[in-house]
Amino acid sequence: MSVQVAPAHPGLRRWGGLGLAALAWFVLYRVNLPFWDWLIYDVFGLDPDSALGSSLHFFGYDLVKIGLLLVGIIFVVTVLRSFMSIERTRALLGGRREGVGNVMAAGLGVITPFCSCSAVPAFIGFVSAGIPIGVTMSFLIASPLVNEIAIGLLLGMFGIGPTLLYVAAGLSIAIIAGWVLGRLHAERWVEPFVFETRLRGEIVDSTAGLTWDDRIAMGREEVATILRKIWPYLLVGIGLGAVIHGWVPTDFFTTYANADNPLGVVVAVGIGVPLYSNAAGVMPLVQSLYGAGLPMGTLLAFMMSVVALSLPEMILLRRVLKPQLIAAFIAVVATGIVAVGYTFNLVLA
Fold first, then answer.
1. pLDDT band at residue 25 under the 50/70/90 scheme
2. What secondary structure letter does DSSP report for 117?
3. Which of 188, 240, 262, 266 has its CA 20 to 30 A from that of 215?
4. Where does the pLDDT of residue 115 fall: very low under 50, low under 70, confident under 90, or very high at 90 and above?
5. pLDDT tens for each residue of 323-348
6. Does residue 280 carry a pLDDT above 90?
7. Would you give the distance in Å from CA 73 to the centre of its chain?
8. Element (H, E) at 199
9. 316-325 pLDDT tens trace
10. How many CB atoms lie within 10 A of CB 187?
């Protein structure tokens, strides 16, 4: 006598599969850094302080990290936005509440300690969800610029005064720059595919009546679509970041960005923009240059430009933003950073 086994309930398969996928994502994210430490430094035997070892480790670790963030954030945001139309999202965060939205987005950025490239996946998810571009820009600026790592390091190295000034300046730049970009109606400079919601290859005009299977399918398809469009930019951006990682012309910096040069802040920002690092990575250099006599405002402007405006970040953003918006973003943020640098030099002189 044969025993028939009842097929698994569709809901069990769905949620069980999602649970396994989430567990796999979490494990991969946690083992990413130890894996590249082991592979580059133990297996290949490269010196962590060498240019080659540091660059290879940077490329492998950041490529996997940002890829995982893209997959996770875009999937979650796509499923969430399937419950809320773009029009409702804009009504909630746009219009006369946009200034409040900029403040909220900047505050969210402070508690998410991403570097500039790691913040890009969340930025893409927010834009695709219909959140106003100016509000989303406030998050993109604040996330790498002001975070608990930078605050803790600044507090320990320079005390409460410069730390509070840094936090206030960073939040002000994020809020004001996002508001200005919002006033420019910059949505027209976002690539059209970002705003499209698709299910099984077809554009979805209304998300009403979708099943959970439909919403999960939308999430998977959105991840695949964006990864197909962005992966060349991801490779180039991270590759460029790896090449210039740790490269800072300190002699040039101390010669041309010193207190005697009235354009020292501009020079510092010009040096910082092409570089790519997070606050923890650039802070030892800031401390060293401060000990060499460079003004605090100049150094904070340099640090802000490194963590908030990086060339690899611009390459990643180019796939979803048109050149006009990238240029406006760089101009507005860089202007704010330069103004903060000169203000700090006056206040802390």
1. very high
2. T
3. 188
4. low
5. 888 888 888 888 888 988 898 888 77
6. no
7. 12
8. strand 198-199
9. 777 778 888 8
10. 16
Say what the pLDDT of residue 47 is: 87
For residue 5, how many other CB atoms are within 10 A of its CB? 5
Pairing type for strands 198-199 and 202-203 reads: antiparallel
> Which residue type sits at 342?
Y
**How far apart are the C-alpha atoms of 277 and 275, rounded to whole Å?**
7
Task: Taking each helix axis as running N to C, give the angle between helix 264-272 and helix 296-308, from 0 to 180 degrees, rounded to the nearest 10.
Answer: 30
Place of tokens 């994020």: 174
> What is the rounded CA–CA span in Å between residue 21 and residue 65?
16
Q: What letter does residue 349 receive in the DSSP assignment?
A: -
Residue 67 confidence (pLDDT): 83
Residues in the chain: 349
Q: What integer is the mean pLDDT of 196-216? A: 66
Token duo for residue 232: 């060349």
Question: Burial, 9: exposed, middle or buried (Cβ in 10 Å; 0-12, 13-18, 19+)?
Answer: exposed
> pLDDT: is 284 or 214 the higher one?
214
Tally of CA atoms within 13 A in the half-sphere of 169 that contains its CB: 28
Q: What is the pLDDT of residue 349?
A: 64
Query: CB-based contacts of 306: which residues, under 8 Å, 6+ apart?
Result: 272, 273, 275, 276, 277, 282
Question: Terminus-to-terminus CA distance in the chain, angstroms?
Answer: 92
Q: Do residues 343 and 275 make contact, with C-beta atoms less than 8 angstroms apart?
A: no
Q: What is the DSSP letter of 40?
A: I
- The pair of structure tokens assigned to 255 is 């010669």
Cβ–Cβ under 8 Å, residues 339 and 346: no
Query: From residue 333, how far is each of 129, 236, 300, 315, 345 by CA, in Å?
Result: 24, 23, 14, 17, 18
Fill in the amino acid letter for 10: P
